[in-house]
Amino acid sequence: MFRTKVGMRAPLPAVTARFLHWMLPGCYRAVTIGSGVLLLAATAHAADFSGASAFKYTQAAVAFGPRPSGSAANRQLQTYIRSQLRMLKCEVTEDPFVAKTPKGDVPMTNIIAKFPGKSGHAIAVTGHFDTKLFPGRKFVGANDGGSSTGLLLELARDLSGTPRVDDVYVVFFDGEEAVGEWSETDSVYGSRHLAYKWKADGTLKRLKALINVDMIGDKSLGVLIEENSTVSLRKLVWNAASDLGYKAYFLDTGEKVDDDHMPFLKLGVPSLDLIDFDYDPWHKDSDTLDKLSPKSLDIVGTVVLESIHRLEHQ
Ligand code: 1BN
Ligand code: ZN
Known about the structure:
CATH class: Alpha Beta
Strand order of the largest sheet: 3-4-6-5-7-10
Radius of gyration: 18 Å
Distance between the termini: 35 Å
Low-confidence stretches: 1-36
Bound molecules: 1-benzyl-1H-imidazole, zinc ion
CATH topology: Aminopeptidase
CATH architecture: 3-Layer(aba) Sandwich
Mean pLDDT: 89
Structural class: alpha/beta
Number of helices: 9
CATH superfamily: Zn peptidases
């Protein structure tokens, strides 16, 4: 597959870019077109996402080791996520449940941070923090489980600083991974549980959009078009990427990928999966931090933050 490498773009000379960034008021962002520079006023709110910070959160998650649902390391990561969220201005809740899996009952917990708005509508950004169980192996899921955790923690930090129009939920799903072979009943335990809980309590009806992130830290970033996803939402996000100068990382080819957005999509919520599935270390012990880049996290996080703003104001 043709891939555009993060490192292959021709960015502004670093000094020029930094100077422009310093010169511009917060509501502008400099992007390059060819050798020229275009200033965009519509991308204010995306300026604050830090890929370096998201990468540090990812490192912290990976340091707990393999984190399959029900494990001690998974619970330790939950404690870490909660402790980080509790430092922010948001409401933190938990959604604990017991999943019936091919290997018996497994306790799982989704963690939800709510950044309240005033419109009555809501937006959710989601991802998973569990890693796939591979008994006897040391699978730490730096990209698959780690990158989504890191991006969501950094997103929460950014959202915490600004008043919201819509309620924005940042959701950390447990139990995305199959305990055995991926199937309808052995996968996406956490998102299935929350989708039904939100249907019952009325939250689902208020959701304008759900954006799920998964495996978005690859050094060679290429987010595919997930073909189950809602087309209008996908276009909104791809347009935001293009306006920010990140068109090359959001591919014009795709496939169907079953992931944590599906339970919400099936219940009628406009939903999108942002996933880079062209990743050789997928489900291998070589899915380690050295395969990731803060810049990839920066690109996806910045686009998600800008997309939230566009959704709030559309
Ligand atoms: C993503 C990361 N997925 C699992 N770990 C979802 C998936 C399941 C992707 C089956 C492809 C096939
Ligand atoms: Zn996986």
